[in-house]
């Protein structure tokens, strides 16, 4: 790019994405974003045509979680932009770095209640870190550069740029600098924190996904090992420390392990790194000194709050050494860092927990993508996650339909890995059109539908608290035939003995495949003990 050269806003935006290392974007074209697609057409960046804009956002989300980088999704004005909302909200709740670019009506007609005119920015503002209503081509370029600067500060989540069609086509100086955002790391004093840490007899670390986004996974492991401090994780951070590591206590909170929740109740000091401490996580904590480290000041809720990147903070305390924690660790070793689930069922109908146990045992080393539904609980209770983003799912928002498009993003991000999607029959039908993408790109994704012929969790709640099931039974299609219509092979399984062999055989094929597993429609999930 020559300094001072002029070209269209769309072309400069695409070049900026190239310079930022973006090599893949997910989207669905429409009239108002066509100038950007024209520039993309002549770019080295690969575009993945999803079959629905919601799928584009979820795929970009899965791509970001699998790489630890930024996911990018594109949509046009009106219906296209609003179809992104589910996926953007999902990324927002889990602090996933997502760049969202929407086209909009030209400036001459915007705001006149013309065809497809809706307030896109106002809709997306509550579920983004920033939502920019761009008016000029120079502003579009500077805000795009500013977005990547903001991602580098450690604060993660969706950033939205809304750009009118005519602005894309206007010329702009390609040497324009970035936005006026100058990130200065917040100053904070760690001496008091170090004193508290060193005086602690029962220290405990809660790691969130911010450890992944800051590239601090190895720093966390080293600090925990050198000081022999037990570690639990939030939902999105599972695998940050392998869950079979001696210092790993597994998940904490509502669905937390016995060891993690005992540690949270008894610790005299908790160091929460890169997590937002949701109400589900806080259920695992007792009265303790809480040191909360997060670059987003809006989520800080500890006795001591440090607005900082998790990796940067770990660097500052890397030379710290604890006194002996052996007595504390010995106390915690009496409790399970995994869930005890009875899966010893051999008869028919097949129990979902037995099916999922067999599946997880057969896919060790694969990335498992999980959807929302009753199967989700069994997957979380039975999984042992051994690497960051080894289990990909939406912990904070939990939309049905997340799994299939997210698996597309994960597979494209990690082509060397096997990707296994576990999804219910209800969630699968929310976004099944993305089978077309998997077929077209021949992505080696194993789709396993846990078919209980209904909306299992909702049915369970209706039976417990209302006057019985209503509108939760599903008259499903033949999922194997449906997959075949997309040129994806499949098989239906009803007995547990077939599963491990079939799953391992399919993974060796390295091609798209669908397995429908018929399970007991009346098997309930275990309900967690809720604190009053």
Q: What does this entry look like structurally?
A:
The chain has 532 residues and is of the alpha/beta class. Helix content is 37%, strand content 17%. It is built from 23 helices and 20 strands. The longest helix is centred in the first third of the chain and has 16 residues, at 137-152. The radius of gyration is 24 Å and the shape is globular. The N and C termini lie far apart (62 Å).
Overall spatial form = globular
Q: Could you name the ranges where pLDDT drops below 50 across 5 or more consecutive residues?
A: none
The CATH topology of the largest domain, please? Rossmann fold
User: Biggest sheet, open or closed, and with what strands and sense?
Assistant: 6 strands, parallel
Question: For the terminal residues, how far apart are their CA atoms?
Answer: 62 Å
The CATH homologous superfamily of the largest domain is named Thiamin diphosphate (ThDP)-binding fold, Pyr/PP domains
Count of separate structural domains: 3
Quick synopsis:
The chain has 532 residues and is of the alpha/beta class. Helices cover 37% and strands 17% of the residues. It is built from 23 helices and 20 strands.
Layout of helices and strands, plus pairs?
Layout: E1 6-8, H1 9-19, E2 24-27, H2 34-41, E3 46-49, H3 53-67, E4 71-75, H4 79-83, H5 85-93, E5 98-104, H6 120-124, E6 130-133, H7 137-152, E7 158-164, H8 165-169, E8 171-173, H9 191-199, E9 203-207, H10 210-213, H11 217-227, E10 231-233, E11 248-251, H12 258-266, E12 269-273, H13 279-282, E13 289-293, E14 304-306, H14 310-316, H15 326-332, H16 352-362, E15 367-370, H17 374-382, E16 391-392, H18 403-413, E17 419-424, H19 425-428, H20 435-441, E18 445-451, H21 456-465, H22 479-485, E19 489-493, H23 499-509, E20 513-518
Parallel strand pairs: 2-3, 2-4, 4-5, 5-7, 6-7, 9-10, 9-12, 10-11, 12-13, 13-14, 15-16, 15-17, 17-18, 18-20, 19-20
Antiparallel strand pairs: 1-8
Helix pairs in contact: 1-2, 1-7, 3-5, 3-18, 16-17, 16-23
């Amino acid at each position: 790019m020559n300094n001072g050269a002029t070209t269209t806003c769309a072309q400069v935006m695409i070049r900026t994405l190239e310079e930022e290392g973006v090599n893949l974007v997910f989207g669905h074209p429409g009239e108002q974003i066509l100038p950007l697609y024209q520039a993309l057409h002549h770019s080295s960046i690969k575009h993945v045509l999803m079959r629905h804009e919601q799928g584009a956002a979820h795929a970009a989300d899965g791509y970001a979680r699998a790489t630890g980088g930024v996911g990018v999704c594109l949509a046009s004005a009106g219906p296209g932009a609003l179809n992104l909302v589910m996926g953007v909200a999902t990324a927002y709740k889990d602090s996933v770095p997502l760049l969202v670019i929407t086209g909009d009506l030209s400036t001459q007609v915007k705001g006149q209640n013309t065809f497809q005119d809706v307030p896109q920015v106002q809709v997306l503002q509550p579920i983004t870190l920033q939502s920019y209503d761009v008016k000029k081509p120079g502003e579009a370029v500077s805000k795009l550069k500013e977005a990547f600067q903001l991602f580098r500060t450690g604060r993660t989540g969706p950033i939205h740029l809304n750009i009118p069609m005519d602005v894309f086509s206007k010329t702009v100086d390609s040497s324009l600098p970035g936005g006026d955002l100058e990130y200065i790391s917040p100053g904070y004093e760690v001496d008091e924190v170090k004193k508290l840490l060193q005086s602690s007899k029962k220290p405990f670390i809660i790691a969130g996904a911010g450890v992944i986004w800051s590239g601090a996974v190895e720093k966390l492991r080293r600090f925990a090992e050198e000081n022999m401090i037990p570690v639990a994780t939030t939902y999105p951070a599972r695998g940050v420390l392998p869950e079979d590591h001696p210092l790993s206590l597994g998940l904490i909170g509502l669905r937390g392990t016995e060891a993690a929740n005992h540690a949270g109740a008894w610790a005299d000091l908790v160091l929460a790194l890169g997590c937002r401490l949701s109400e589900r996580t806080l259920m695992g904590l007792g009265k303790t000194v809480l040191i909360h480290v997060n670059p987003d000041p809006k989520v800080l809720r500890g006795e001591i709050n440090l607005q900082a990147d998790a990796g940067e903070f770990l660097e500052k305390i890397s030379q710290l050494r604890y006194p002996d924690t052996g007595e504390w660790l010995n106390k915690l070793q009496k409790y399970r860092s995994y869930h005890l689930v009875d899966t010893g069922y051999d008869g028919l109908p097949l129990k979902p927990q037995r099916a999922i146990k067999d599946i997880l045992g057969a896919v060790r080393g694969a990335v498992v993508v999980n959807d929302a539904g009753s199967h989700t609980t069994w997957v979380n209770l039975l999984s042992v996650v051994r690497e960051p983003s080894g289990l990909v799912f939406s912990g904070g928002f939990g939309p049905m339909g997340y799994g299939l498009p997210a698996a597309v993003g994960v597979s494209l991000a990690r082509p060397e890995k096997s990707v296994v999607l576990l999804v219910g029959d209800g969630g699968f039908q929310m976004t099944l059109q993305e089978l077309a993408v998997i077929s077209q790109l021949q992505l080696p994704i194993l789709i396993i539908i846990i078919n209980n012929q209904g909306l299992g969790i909702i049915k369970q709640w209706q039976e417990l608290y209302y006057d019985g099931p209503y509108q939760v039974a599903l008259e499903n299609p033949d999922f194997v035939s449906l997959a075949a219509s997309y040129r994806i092979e499949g098989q239906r399984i009803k007995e547990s003995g077939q599963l491990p062999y079939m799953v391992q055989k399919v993974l060796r094929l390295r091609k798209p495949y669908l397995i429908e597993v018929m399970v007991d429609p009346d098997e309930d999930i275990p309900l967690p003990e809720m604190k009053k």
